[in-house]
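Structure ticket #2291
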Amino acid sequence: MQNITVLQLGAALAIIIGLALAWLAFRAAQQARAIGYDQGYDDARNAQLARIELLQGELDDLSGLAADLETARRLERDELIQDADRRIAIYASRSNPFTEADLLTLQTAAEQLGLLSRTFHGFGSTKNATQASHIAQQTLNMAERLRAALAARTAQQEARTLEAAA
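Resolution: structure written out below.
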């Protein structure tokens, strides 16, 4: 009977050792799986980091290119605006064909109309004196508007000259 007990004890010990080995194998497999997962994650992360760095470099290059293109677009727009301003100034100067001599002529005409108004007033023709005085005043107003237009044209020409020199 002792034989059976030793056999039973040996079998029980073998079962316990087998269960312990199975449990150790299961734990080792779980640990190996976790380590393998971590290693796989690290490998994938490192591979993607290299790709991300490459994409970041491309993004920086494209951002620089976009900034350069925006600067070029602004410069081109500014050149177009300056060209339009020059053309407007040219057309504006063409629309005002009057000169300083024309201004003097208007002032002289206004003085003559004032003299005519005083002459009519001296003859007692108040209606004609009033008309001549009114026309003299309108002529003086016209001369003042022409003086302002000529001054503006001169200022534009000076600005264009300074701009061309720069």
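Closing remark: The chain has a mean pLDDT of 87.
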